[in-house]
């Protein structure tokens, strides 16, 4: 900790946000209280014994990524850390798959892991073991696991969920520029004059960077924004030009734009001649990509394509920002290359405000790449297949020659397929949830069921992967661990512990290190000295930096002392440097053997899964504004459900009308690999023929495992990144004979833990959280909606009422109609004069119209008069007023009322205060101001 104890027993610790790749600096406020006081406030919490708790998080004004700003998710970080409910607090083991796990001490857990891994290696060889890591691990964690697998066990089967996120960007950079890593920096956001967003809803995925772009555009109204996205996202709605292309046609678009640039002689011939190769081959391919042909493939107006090309080519500085829309594709590398070609051909690279800038989804996808923590890489951007690179690493690790395997390991999708086929016997999963995040999760579940050994290292019990763990190892999480992360602009920041670890949780690096020591003892020494003598993250960082010396990412000049003294730094930062390098390739010399960037003739190829008569719709997946990945952290905070309260399938009204579907009803989304049931939301954000669902909702909130029941395992041949963004589906009305709506006020995490096991048997079930206006932060509601073909057995309903404490009794009003299978129950709190709804349970054989009663409950308004009149509250549902500004708690209706009186964004900020704190709602405010007002 770098904070000092104040007289009021508060400390402040400087650290980094744990969510997206922006890498915002945060200041964590911790209150230290004596154990007795904590114990009385947090009965049953093992964290109470630590005597300290995180009470607030603010943006760090000194961090160069965010200058004090945070988005909604970052601002709510303290809330995620508040409860120990659902934390893994001790190691757990089971000998047989069907047995429950039992708690054991660390020595037993570590010895068991080491013994079982050694057995498997002796029986089946090192490639029978695999590691599946996470872009949320710190660089030091990654380093230890990478060394353990490659240097000690002798397998390159170390892959990570970054494979799902950035591997196409890596492949694109390496093929075109010769090395991984963006050539740009965040300052370029302020210096760009044309900004091309491609497959990036930055308003949701990298909101603090969008604030920087907005600031720049306010200063200079000539700045142009072009957004390429099949959906009219909040980012697209702010663009000067939105190219709503057909899904997967990005290469055709970029090729068509480059054709126009060549035709109009808007390319930088001198740059192309002196600094690139392969242009003529590409040029001859591009002859076919006339703007008209490309626009037709993309389904856009040719004039818009030409406008985009003109703005791109004539701008003094063009910056492209891209993300999952390009990467999560079976042709993601092609998409990256085609975009980079535009920059190389126009010389829009290596100068202020210009360049291709991939935005990393996770906080440390970059750090993982730096230490070579993937199946196809070695440390410090070295290649597994290069004998010279392997010899380098062997020398630096003190290993005998030819120790490292020359065989690339299994990338994520292939790794789980090998587990399913029995080729890989054991998998160690750390800090990630593949049963939610990988495509085709039905196959992932099968893989884990068939594995001989599944080790899961996690901070939270409530992920869809934990039930498969034979060994569950308790890991620390944000606020409790030390190390470093690298953000999207190659900037390394310190992550610091603000509170001590709860229960027996340990840092990820420590767990890997302890198992490695045991493995080394059992397998015999691998090197001249013990490989795992690390005693702290700083020692790991020191070894990592030694491996980078002389490489493109040389950080020989950095250590913890420097980072602590001077703050976050960009790489490269060699020894004797005063500062890191903001921009790369400023001299036009690229990281290829001949110093020239390379063009690659890249034809357009369609998405991997075509639509058909059976599956006529294109399913796109993406993010919500206030949730992050599988919601194991953001899903703990009721306030983060306010913007998007429920899972839904968004469909164009014409497509819905054609199928006789209406807003709000349950629909079945059916694909070639599975199906999910979701409520329908009519939306014209995408064109007819395309539907959208958010990626976040998992089996913790749904009776299905979420949208990856439907996505496919097709991967990009070069990057091995799967096409998570697109699948072909059909949508049908989902008809059920029994429906339930229940809600309960209380500790939502405890309620969720009790209710969640009951969801699975239902045809549709959904949990969500809601806050009560004006109530304390920890007073919230859990709502449950469920439906199945026929009424469930009475013991299921009994178990549910027990779990949600919705039992009949003195404080309940109940109405039953056994003949119609109808039950209504409301639970009260408070006296008869002024009472409040504390919970409700409604069942019916028809879809329920209980929204009015639910809204009444969630509103927290007191109930006056006869309690028996409560059921008169049900009837036709009214839509909930969506919360637009989370920070100031301003709903859509209040904003619309002001807009109807002519208010613009600034007026809304002044009158209502919305959009004045984190700014995450600013794109939506702008959109509401532009929309025609409802009558
Ligand atoms: Fe965290 Fe939001 Fe910053 Fe991303 S933009 S690092 S989620 S605060």
Largest sheet: 7 strands, mixed
> Given the structure, what is the number of helices?
32
Estimated radius of gyration: 28 Å
Give the terminus-to-terminus CA distance: 56 Å
Strand order of the largest sheet: 5-4-18-17-16-6-7
- Ligands (ions, cofactors included): iron/sulfur cluster
Poorly predicted runs? 1-7, 38-49
The best one-word shape is globular
Beta-strand portion reads: 15-25%
What does this molecule look like?
It is a single chain. This protein has about 950 residues and is α/β, with parallel strands linked by helices. About 30% of the residues lie in helices and about 20% in strands. Strand 9 (about 225-230), helix 10 and strand 10 form a beta-alpha-beta unit. The longest helix has 19 residues, at about 105-125. It is globular and about 85 Å long. The protein starts with 9 loop residues before the first strand and ends in a 5-residue tail after the last helix. The relative contact order is 0.12. Iron/sulfur cluster binds next to helix 2 and helix 9. Iron/sulfur cluster binds near residues 70, 73, 206 and 207.
